[in-house]
Amino acid sequence: MKKFAVIGLGRFGASVAKTLSEKGQEVIAVDKNEEFVHDVMDVVTKAVCLDATDEKSMKAIGIQNVDVAICGIGMNIEASILVTLLLQEMGVPTIICKAVTEFHKKVLKKIGAHKVVLPERDMGIRVANSLLTRDANVLEHIELPGDASILEILPSADFIGKTLREIDLRAQYGVNIIAIKKIKKDMETGEILESQAININPLAEDIVSSDDVLIVFGEKNKIDKLKNKG
Known about the structure:
Residues 1-118 form the RCK N-terminal domain. The chain is of the alpha/beta class.
């Protein structure tokens, strides 16, 4: 089990803290807003109301001992930078930060953040990709750094009942099925209710069923051809 600290409990930080806790991880959640702290205190290992730019207070709750610190402070750029510097000086092995602009991201990387995310931008890209696809079977399209993408897609009728070898997306589109996720659907509406299991090592003889989601990896232009095949 890893030890995590989540600093800044707005929508992004609270979501990260709750998800990590639900996955059985040890989480220290920090914010100077009492209401935000109260919202997660029954879920995380420890929830503390304090000013995260105060080094003494941060050391008193053991932030220097965590394996990963996530700084979810966004709009207060000065506080975001100060907290990132403090985490770096405290020797936290992995520092992940939220940024609100590309310039903010660049600054955080310069001062020691190991990874910086722009959640609003990334979500906007995902929504735009979902709107532009012509295939209703596409659930998710994630563009990765460089020339690669991951696609989550429901199998079309001509895939169901066939093996991965028979479908052979690599030969048809130059992409690879890297995992298969089992889902539960509403019997009346067909709406996806939940994911039940994931096979991260699919074999050529695995048979595709109607309750599968295919997770496909490949170059962006080839993923686009598959996404818009309908």
